[in-house]
Structure formats: structure tokens, C-alpha cells
Amino acid sequence: MTKTLPLLAAALIAVTGAAHAHPGGRDSGPVTRDEALQKAEDRFAEMDENADGFVTLEELEGQLRGRRARHAEKMFDKHDINDDGYVSLDEMLEHAGERFDEVDTDGDGVISDEEREAAREGMRDRMKKKRG
Ligand SMILES: [Ca+2]
Ligand SMILES: [Ca+2]
């Protein structure tokens, strides 16, 4: 009998948790791989100002304002996987997929709040190390 209790509790959490599945906030709740790629595609469309299917460094710089613009070149290099000076939608999605897999540490195809928080912490640590 004792074995069924944790199961019951898990079932209850699953049911009550489902009631909060649509919190409305865009940055809360689990994110699936498909959602992450869809977001990347939307971002790409925003960045590709002349809608030619490629994002140039100039277009990226135009999107990043102020302090972040200094990182445009670095970011661009990361996304321009074949190094031809343009970021295509394929490259954007490939990069987004890689990033997703990095954050999705248990590999279940969903980024939970915990995994997102862990990724944030990791980023903070890396920045601290860079500064020395
Ligand atoms: Ca390219
Ligand atoms: Ca996960």
C-alpha cells in the first residue's frame, strides 16, 4: 500500500499542475524544442530587415542596440556556421537547436524552469570567470 502513495501524490501534482499549464507569461513554464525553434524563426524574420532570407552583420547590429551591439560580431560569427558572411534561417535554427540541447540537460526535449535557471547560473559563472 505504501508504494501506491507516492504514485498518487505524483498523479495529483500532474493534475493540479495542469491547471497552471497556461500561465500567460511568455517566459514562464516549460519550453519544447519546437517552441524554441519557432521563436528562433520569428527572431530571424525580425532581423532579416530586407527579407532576402539572410541576416548580415549590419542587420544584426541594427537589432542590437547600446552595449549589446559590441557583441554583434561575436554573436554573428557563432551563428554563421559555414562562415560565408550571411546567417541563413537554417544556420539560425541549427544554432538554436544546439543551444536548446545544451540547456536541456536531461534530454527530454523540454526545458523546464529548473533547467532554464541552471543555464542562467552557468552563464553568470562563465562571465565571472572571463572577468577573472
Ligand atoms: Ca552562413
Ligand atoms: Ca529537459
From TrEMBL:
Residues 67-102 form the EF-hand domain. Residues 103-116 have a biased composition (Acidic residues). Residues 1-21 form the signal peptide. InterPro entries: EF-hand-dom_pair, EF_Hand_1_Ca_BS, EF_hand_dom. The keyword Signal applies. It holds the Pfam family EF-hand_5. Residues 97-132 are annotated as: Disordered. This is EF-hand domain-containing protein. It comes from Parvularcula mediterranea.
